[in-house]
Structure formats: C-alpha cells, structure tokens
Amino acid sequence: MVMTLDKKTAYLDNKPTEMVKAPTLVSKNVLIPLRFLGESLGVQVFWDNQIKSAFLFSSNSNESGNTEEPKPTDPPDGGLIGVVDPEEGESEGGETEVPPTTTVPPVIPNVTGNLLEVRYETDMVVLKYDGLISPNSFKLDNPKRIVVDVPNTQYSGSFVPAVDFTLASEGKFLVTDHEALQSVRYSMFGDSVKSPRFVLDLAQSWDYEIVNDALASELRIILKKPVADKSIYTVVLDAGHGGTDPGAISITKRPEKDFNLSVILKVRDLLANDERIKLILTRSDDSFPTLDSRSALANAVQADLFLSVHANSYTASTNGTETYYTREDSKEFANLMHSLYAPVTGLKDNGVRYKSLSVTRKTTMPAILLEVGYLSSKIDEPQLWTNELQDRVAQAIAKGIKMQLKLS
Predict the structure, then answer these.
(1) What is the pLDDT of residues 175-224, one digit of tens each?
(2) Greatest mean pLDDT among 73-82, 95-104, 169-178, 254-263
(3) When comparing pLDDT for 74 and 351, which is higher?
(4) Measured distance CA(138)–CA(148) in Å, rounded
(5) How far apart are CA 74 and CA 162, in angstroms?
(6) Local structure of 349: helix, strand or coil
(7) What's the gap between Cα 57 and its chain centre?
(8) Within 10 A of 283 (CB to CB), how many other CB atoms are there?
(9) pLDDT value at position 93?
(10) pLDDT higher than 90, residue 135
C-alpha cells in the first residue's frame, strides 16, 4: 500500500483507492487513517490507550476453517503485522501518529479490548469498546440477574461512568424506566486473572440477547420480555345472527341463526373436555349480541382465536362453501380451517376469500368467518340441515382449532 501526505488517493496493489481523510504531518508526526488501513488490509486495529500504541492483527484460521482470536505471534505466523508507537497524546478522528523513526514493538499484552462506556438505552444495556472482545453471559437466581463477563479486556482510563476500583469494589447506576431492570453494576471479577463483569439486577426473570456489533464497536445486551408457555388457550366461538336477527332465510323458510348455533354448540361439545382450551361463546341461545360486542368480547378476553359460523344466501344458482378473513395475520388460520371443513361438506369449494367484515376486522387475534353453504341453493340447503353434515363440519372445525394452536 502506498499513501502520500495530504492526498486522499492511496494505492493498494497499484490500484487507486479514495480515503475519507488524507495522511497529514503534525508536529513531525504523520497521522494516518487507521480504519482505512485496517479495512483495506483485512486486519483488526486495536488501540491501547495506556501505552498509546496501535496494534494490527490479521486472522489465523485453524484446520476446520474457524477463525481464531488474534494471538501474539511473529509476523510470518499471521499475528502481529505492525505496531505504531506514537508520542504521548490521544489520536483523533480514527487517525494515529506515526513517528518518522522506527520503534521497537512492545510486548503485546493479553488485553485485546478496552471498555469505554456502559449506558442504558430503551430495552438494552450498551457497552462501548475498542479492540476485540468475546463476552460470556449467563443468568442467575436469588436474586435474579443477568451476568456478562468480558475477558481479556480492561476499563479504559476514561471509562464512563467513572469508578476508581482501588477505592470501590464496583460501579453502579440505577434504571428507573424499565419493567424488570433495576440497576447495572460493573466491577473486576476473577481469582488469579480478573476481568470486567457487568451485572444487570432484575426485579423479575427476563430474557435477553447478546449482540456484538463489531462495526459500531458496541456490545448490546437486549432485554426481551419473556413469552410465557401457554397452558390454556382461549377460543371465541361465534354463532352468527340470533334473536331478532334471523340472518338469511332458507328456501324452506328456516332461519340461518338456527344453523349457525347448532354447529357452534356441536363444536363446543367436542372441545369441552380439553382442559387446554377455554371456550367462550358469543351466544349459546337465541339471543342477539351486536357485531361490535362480539369483537369487543374477543379482544377483552385476549382470545387466541376467533371463529364465526354462518350460512350464505344469494341467487338460486349460487352454491358452495367459502371461508373469509380480513387481516393478514388471519390468512393462515383461514387456509388451514378451509382445507379441513370444506371437503367434508361435500359441497362446491369456493375457496378462501378476503372481505372486510366487522368481526374479522375489529378483532385483534386470528379471526375467520365460515360460510358453510348457501341456504338459497337447492343443492346446499337440504344438506345444511342434516345432523350428518353438521357433525362432520363441527369435527373438522374442532380439529382445525387444535391444529392452529399446535395441540395434539
């Protein structure tokens, strides 16, 4: 690689490449852009603020192809490939001072990273660092806490929030705006070899994820509210219409509301003994809940599924079975249920359809509406009133509910 003072064009393998900053001469020292150097050569750049030195590491690979952490080795082995030992003073803007004279490389310490800051952001604790880090983490109880160890690192002299470990055993700050996280403590931990440890004190058990963003030089401890393993699922069954609203009138003058309720009651009876499913019916008799009250009920009980049963009516020539959904999160449920109950009707399969219906639009859980057949059809209507068809449909619905909830 060739760089020229005050010029942003560098030559890598005789090919010109533009740099963000040009090398500069300051007080007899040359400032070079270390980030550009590291990215261009494919090496890791580590700045040790205590000894005011920059170390460049290349990657070693073992026989299995896995990348090892950089270790102090001679240059032929692929370890340390360069050392910059500037005069006293901080580097700025990703650059470091290169003295015009050659210096003897210092002994590389075991430390590969410096911790610069710990802070709390929304739902996460962030560790800012430079160099290389490989954190370890685990959870403890009594009291509940998340522990993150960062071996082979040290607190920088300018670490924030500052703490003098010669005077105090640990640093600590409180967190007041999180449901579980109460405080963050940090210290040096270990027997013969001590390393930084961060402890997140919790009011209750909480899940977490560790994300090491090397590009941003940030280690993020992301807090995630635990999802409880559900042992009981709530399903709202809705028999369409009812009471003063008869729904469609069949060609034999029978009201749709009776068909809807008959099927729903059969589904209830099939699932009644399954302790994993809590069934709630919008109506179990000839009453009329409003459309808004049906969806409001399902939302209020935080139902896992909502299923409404209807029979259709149109022209005499129209017949068949249809399943409706409104929101995208209901489509999977609609497809599953239709694939199970439509075939057992023996009627024409009109497929799964999108339609903006009140009960499937205003609910907040997967919600579908079944139009089992057409009461206005001479083909469908006689079949819809038979116990045989209603039993088959109810059995398919019960099976579909269990499958959607992943219950065997």
Answers:
(1) 999 999 999 999 998 877 788 999 999 999 999 999 999 889 999 999 99
(2) 254-263
(3) 351
(4) 7
(5) 36
(6) strand
(7) 33
(8) 21
(9) 40
(10) yes
Domains of the chain: 9-98 (no CATH), 113-224 (2.60.40.3500), 233-404 (3.40.630.40)
More confident residue, 377 or 229: 377
Distances, alpha carbon 114 to alpha carbons 97, 189, 234, 310, in Å: 19, 16, 51, 66
Cα(160)–Cα(126) distance, integer angstroms: 12
Distance CA 321, CA 120 (A): 55
The token pair that represents 384 in the structure block: 């819809």
Crossing angle, helix 387-404 and helix 256-271, to 10 degrees?
A: 50
| Structure-block tokens of residue 346 | 């023996």
**Which spans in 304-386 are helix H?**
331-345, 358-361, 381-384
CA 180/CA 80 separation, integer angstroms: 44
Six-digit token string for 28: 């007899």
Question: How many CB atoms are closer than 10 A to CB 368?
Answer: 29
Other residues' Cβ atoms within 10 Å of the Cβ of residue 19: 17
More confident residue, 32 or 322: 322
pLDDT above 80: residue 63: no
Predicted confidence at residue 53, as pLDDT, reads 58
pTM, rounded to two decimals? 0.49
Kindly state the tokens that stand for 255.
């009201």
Identify whether the C-beta of residue 199 lies closer than 8 Å to the C-beta of residue 146: yes
Cα–Cα distance for residue pair 101/149, rounded to 1 Å:
39
Distance CA 109, CA 185 (A): 26
